[in-house]
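so ive been stuck on this for like two days lol. basically i have the seq below and the ligand is zinc ion, smiles is in there too. i just want the complex predicted, nothing fancy, no docking runs or whatever. if the output looks off dont worry ill sanity check it later, just need somthing to start from for the group meeting slides
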Amino acid sequence: MNRRSFVHHSAILTGLSLLPGQKALLKSLFPDEGNMTILRDNVGIYTERGGTIGWMIEGDSVVVVDTQFPDQARNLISQIKQRGGKSVDLLINTHHHGDHSGGNIAFQGMADRIVAHTNSKKNQEVSAKSRGNEESQLYPTELYDTEWSDQIGSETITLRYFGAAHTDGDSLIHFENANIVHMGDLLFNRRFPFIDKSAGASIRNWIDVLQQAQRTFDKDTLYIFGHSGAGYPVTGNKDDLQAMQNYLRSLLKYVKKQMKKGLSVEEITKITDQIPGAPEWTGRGVGRSISAAFEELSEQ
Ligand SMILES: [Zn+2]
């Protein structure tokens, strides 16, 4: 049922006017905009369309991680202003993909500092040039290679790079006091991931990056995920990191086995709905996983 027919049905049920409870239900089912949700301390998430956005608002201090697309970023900015935020002290991109950095442009004049990994900016430039949409990009102003840290308000924010994984420029962003880590697209929670070989992705190294994350953070760390499958949350704990590692290991093992039988990428994709050993990963795009694994295993 879409929003309009839901309103129509509800209006009939209530004699053409919505009760407050129904209005709240309607808003939760069909939000015009996304919702800012607190996770812990002053740190939360914003979800609308695209990769999950992380944010921190502490008095006048505002930090935003990723920006979805321009319309979604504008909705978030208006909600930040409603909460008293006037400008963004620090904008961070977990990586360059358009559903994470496309909304940067909406922060023009609102955020002077944009931080990302060196390769994230490089990939953003290459991608924008090939798509011919350079004028709608707002690029990072500060780059780093292995680790970057700064204090905003009373919170210490540390970016780490553990090597190529989903792309060759994925940052893990740690809000140290709140003990929340934004994983960007290093974690697709029970949903077939995009593995961007054209931007230097490595499945084998991705498994190791998830191991390094578990070594670096602790059992109380709360993680934010770029995307999730239907019915799964965009936040979680180290068990979800292990499950993602298991998906990637299972993917390599499965594709290797099919390649030994002499099957092509197309043939493997055609016979595959799920990856044996990781059946909870679903959605569209199993073929993207298979082609990336095929390419990586062919390089040996
Ligand atoms: Zn991505």
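The chain has a mean pLDDT of 92. The chain has nine helices and 15 strands.
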